[in-house]
Design goal:
The protein is of the alpha+beta class. It has one domain: GMP Synthetase, Chain A, domain 3. Helix content is 38%, strand content 26%. The protein contains 3 helices and 3 strands; from the N terminus they run αββααβ. Strands 1-2-3 form a 3-stranded mixed sheet. The radius of gyration is 12 Å and the shape is globular. The two termini are 20 Å apart. The mean pLDDT is 93.
Length: 76
Amino acid sequence: MEELISTIAKALVDFPDDVSVDRREKENEIVFTLHVHKEDVGKVIGKQGRIAKAIRTVVYAAGNHSTKRVFLEIND
């Protein structure tokens, strides 16, 4: 899943070397945190959050087979 998020984000940003994904697991959820360069945050979020919503939709669909809920956070 980390590789999927990283691949999508690297295609969108100007600084692909600064893209990283962290994973935290709790009892009922898995939280992925996407870190990008400060100048690329707007490109990953998109106008009115449309790109972020699309990325989250793909990640949630890919994580649908898991019994845990999947979340995606975007940080700089």
